[in-house]
Amino acid sequence: MTIVMEDIVAREAKYVLQNYRRNPITFVRGSGVRLYDADGREYIDLLSGIGVAALGHGHAGMARALHEQLQTLIHTSNLFFHPLQGELAERLAQLSGLSRSFFCNSGTEAVEACLKFARRYWHTKGEPRAQFVALDESFHGRTFGSLSVTSDEHYRAPFEPLLPTVTFVRTNDPAALAQAVTTSTAAIIAEPVIGEGGVRPLTPAFAAAITEACAKTGALFIADEVQSGLGRTGAPFYFQTLGLSPHLVAVGKALGGGVPIGAALLSQQVADTISFGDHGSTYGGNLLACRAALVVLAELFDRGGVENVRRVGAAFERRLRAIAAAHPIVRDVRGAGLMWGLDLERGANAIVPAALERGLVVNRTADTVVRLLPPLIISEADADEALGRLDAALGAVEASA
Ligand SMILES: Cc1ncc(COP(=O)(O)O)c(C=O)c1O
Known about the structure:
By secondary structure, the protein is of the alpha/beta class. It has helices at residues 5-15, 48-51, 60-72, 85-96, 107-124, 144-148, 153-156, 174-180, 204-217, 238-241, 268-271, 287-301, 305-326, 351-357, 380-400, and strands at 27-31, 34-37, 42-45, 100-104, 131-135, 166-169, 185-190, 193-194, 200-201, 220-224, 248-251, 262-266, 330-336, 339-344, 360-361, 363-365, 369-372. Helix 13 runs parallel beside helix 15. The chain is globular.
């Protein structure tokens, strides 16, 4: 099949809702950490489809498992049992320490489920608490509940009124959090590493303030690990690195390695307050999605994936800091494992096309931040080559300023 870029763009312009500003590239194939466009040009992928393709592209084990699953059974609905959902929930319980899973299809649905379960917890206890406390710079998704706890006005304003029961506090300000959380607070929600808001890990002092506020008021804690979870930072979840004990955890993105699946993980204490029929999803946790997630978790946690994140992540950080030191436009380097942001002194928009020209896929977030979320299976050699291309892109943008 010949692929003509102009035809693709023209057809989309006519028929697809124009809500995404796409880069002018059509990817047609991938292998490992490499993507190939319609003209056969090769790119190193330091974005993995925004933190999704944890095993890279064209993964042979994933392809075999999904092929077999497609030929066997894809979907039967949650009206019946199937053999894979319990197996996946058991794995997630072992990794997170939270005893139960609810499966859905995306990150925003996982967050919605956590918000609903927090409300349901207090309703069941006969003390209906409605308030949520969320963070400035947070991003939790685009559906109404998730958007209500997302801070950015740009996302919120066209859809107001949103949930009126949300208080935002300054990220990493323990005193502000202590003041905002009261005995009316149903839950605090936070990303342990803020992703879209500019790759900002929570500080240990702020994590301690979350624990203290929950202990003092009874408020639940929801950790949104949609972007930071499942090995991305070198631990199964970053809340573990921070010593936090969430009552609810939202998971998505990397879980299916590209097959859509999300999950809300619940402590037993919260799970005990949920009844049959309280929440549900037609697709949630179907056979195909669970099969994909089981492959991802096996690769990451049984076959050395997370050790690779730690090892390559350390080398990645060293090289990134050296590059940052050589470029005056970089004012900060933040992250952990294989989740990094280079904060620039000016808008980071120009870096994306400069990187693409040099065969590198990166992304800009929070205006000034170049975000790097490589596949978790990246080798040290590929990471080095990719960061060499980033170095060149930064140099070109600096020279043209
Ligand atoms: C921390 C976090 N939560 C939730 C979401 C929403 O996930 P989705 O786009 O799959 O709905 C995202 C997406 O970027 C995210 O980064």
